[in-house]
Design goal:
It is built from two helices and eleven strands, in the order αβββββββββαββ. It has about 160 residues and is of the alpha+beta class. It starts with a helix and ends with a strand.
């Protein structure tokens, strides 16, 4: 009788653990930071739990997205999972003058451009993202605005 009760309890625990795991992985994405572009906020090797069921993306949110680009040698498409901070949202106006980034008439001295650019107005499905380690980050200053559709999850640091 005890053995039968133990089997029932074990089965119930297994179903419970499986259910919790399914719910967790439906809602969250586990991400391992690779690289130094988000230092000092995030360090290489740090493990994050990011929300896949985000409703809105706001200024300063840290987003995880897929970036697809052409590999220089083979010209094959390469997709890389990237972590950056949102600094401009749809409709924002972005420009660079004397190497300094300006968003909606506000100049950011921390983020320099390599060259001056014409004003860019983000489309309704675009974000402008940068790394917190501005001098060590390849980000929207290099690859341009990203599509909101490419965002997989939002990291909510507390």
């Amino acid at each position: 009788m005890c053995r039968k009760n133990n089997n029932i309890i074990t089965a119930i625990l297994c179903v419970l653990i499986l259910t919790i795991s399914i719910i967790f992985f439906y809602k969250y994405q586990i991400v391992i930071v690779n690289g130094n572009s988000m230092i000092p906020t995030l360090k290489s090797g740090q493990i994050l739990i990011a929300n896949k069921n985000f409703k809105d993306i706001n200024y300063s949110d840290i987003v995880i997205f897929d970036l697809t680009y052409k590999e220089s040698e083979s010209q094959n498409d390469v997709t890389e999972r990237v972590i950056k901070r949102v600094i401009a949202l749809p409709g924002d106006r972005i420009s660079s003058n004397n190497g300094r980034l300006t968003i909606n008439s506000l100049t950011y001295n921390d983020y320099s451009f390599f060259s001056d650019t014409e004003q860019l107005i983000l489309k309704s499905n675009e974000l402008f993202v940068v790394g917190d380690n501005a001098s060590g980050s390849s980000d929207s200053r290099v690859f341009g605005a990203i599509s909101i559709d490419s965002v997989i999850a939002v990291y909510e640091s507390k």
